[in-house]
Design a protein that fits this description.
The protein is mostly helical. It has helices at 33-47, 49-64, and strands at residues 13-15, 18-20. It has one domain (13-64).
């Protein structure tokens, strides 16, 4: 089955040889990557990659404004 919603994206941070599970990404502090990426993948299945990519860009622009 494609688009299994039971899967969870987890963000790990390697710090001094230990993997930590931070609440936010150090690279994308203002963006909830673990929520956006699964939603974006699902959206890409529904409307296509180009439109999903455009919506991600729009969301990033709103977060950086």
């Amino acid at each position: 089955m494609i688009g299994n919603s039971d899967r969870i994206l987890v963000n790990y941070l390697l710090s001094q040889g230990i993997y930590l599970k931070p609440d936010t990404s150090p690279h994308f502090e203002n963006i909830q990557i673990t929520e956006i990426i699964p939603a974006l993948v699902e959206l890409a299945w529904q409307v296509g990659n180009v439109q999903a990519s455009e919506e991600l860009t729009a969301q990033c622009n709103l977060n950086n404004a």
